[in-house]
Amino acid sequence: MNDKRRLLYYESMAFYPSTAHFLEASQDLARGGGWLTEFFDEARFVAGTPSLAARIATRVRGGRPRGIRALNRELLVRARAFAPDVVLVGKGRYLAPATLAAIKAASGARLINWATDDPFNPANGSAALRAAIPLYDLYVSTKRAIVPALRAAGARQVIYQRFGYKPTAHYPQVPVTPAEHARFVCDVAFVGGADADRVPYFERLMRELPGVRLNLYGNYWNRSARLAPYWRGRADGRDYRLALGGAAIAVNLLRRANHDDHVMRTFELPACGAFMLAERSDSHRELFAEGREAAFFATPDELAAQVRHYLPRAAERARIAAAGRRRVLAGGHSYNDRLHEILCAAGQLVAAGGDRAGLADCAGSPDSAKDSWGGRRGDPR
Known about the structure:
This protein has 15 helices and eleven strands. By secondary structure, the protein is an alpha/beta fold. The chain has two domains: 5-164 and 334-371, Rossmann fold (3-Layer(aba) Sandwich); 178-330, Rossmann fold, CATH 3.40.50.2000. It has a six-stranded parallel beta sheet with strand order 2-1-3-4-5-6, with helices on both faces.
C-alpha cells in the first residue's frame, strides 16, 4: 500500500525565482520519497504586477482581477483529482472560502496558510482572504505582531515563522563584464518598493553624503523627484544577485504597512554574501550579532552615519558579511527547513486532535515532516 503523503502547494510564480517560496523545497520533499507533491501556479490566472489597464478593470470589477473564477474552478478540480493530505497556500488572496471548504470536504485535507503579507492590510489582503481565516487548520504567519489579530479573526491554530532563503537562488555572484559593472557596481543598494516611509531614508542619505553611488531597485522609485536619478528598474533572479554582489553596502528596510520585524531580504542578503545594513528590530537582533554579523540603524540619520562609517572600511565589511552568511547558512533558515517545520507542525496537530501542544518543537530534521504524520490516511500503521 502506498504510504506516501500528498502535498498540494499553491502560490504564485510571478516573481520567480523568489516566488513560489517552497517550489524547490517541495520538489526536494518529493525526491526524498515520503511525499507526493503537486504545484498550482496562481500566476497562470492572475498577474503579479498587472498593467495600468488591468488595474483599472480590476477596480471596475470591485477589486477582483479577471481570472479569479477560473482559478478557483481549476484548483478545485486539481484537488479532487490529486486527493491531497495537505494543501499549503502561499497567501491565497484570490481563493474563495467556498473553494477551500469544497476542497476540504472532498479530500479531508489539512489546510495551511503561509501568510507572506498582513491579511488585514488593505493593500495586500482581500475580503475573501480574511473570511477564509477560520477555514485553515493552521495559519503560519511571517508577522509576529499580527498573531493576536489572526486568533481574534477565528484562526484555529497560529504559529509564527520567519522568512527564509533559497539555496538555488540566493548565493554570491558578482558583476564581471563591463556592462555588469556599469549597471550594478555602487556604494549603496536597496532592493524593494518605494514605500512612503522608506523614501526619507534615502533622501537623507543623499543630502548627507551626496557623492554616494546609490542604486535603487524596485517599483515606484522613479516617482520621487529626488531619488528618480538613482532608480535602476527591477532586479530579479540573476540580476538580484548581481545587484547585491556589486554593492559595497546592501540596505534592508522593513515594511511597516505589513507589521514586519524582518523581511525576505533578512536572509537573502546575507545568503548572497552581501554586507547587510538592516533596520534595527527585535528579529534582526535575535538573528544577528550587531557589528559582527550585520550592522543596524534605526533612523535616517543613523543610516547615513553607518554608511559614512562602513563605506571606507572594506575589510570590516567583508568580515561581517562572511560571518552573516555563515549564520544564515548554518541556522536552518532555508525554505526546505521552513517547509519541514510547517509539515511537522501540521502533523503534530493531526496527532494531537487539534491541540496546540507541541507545535513549537518542529525545527530540525527533514524526516520530521514525514515522521510526525505516520502512514497515509487509511493505512493500518
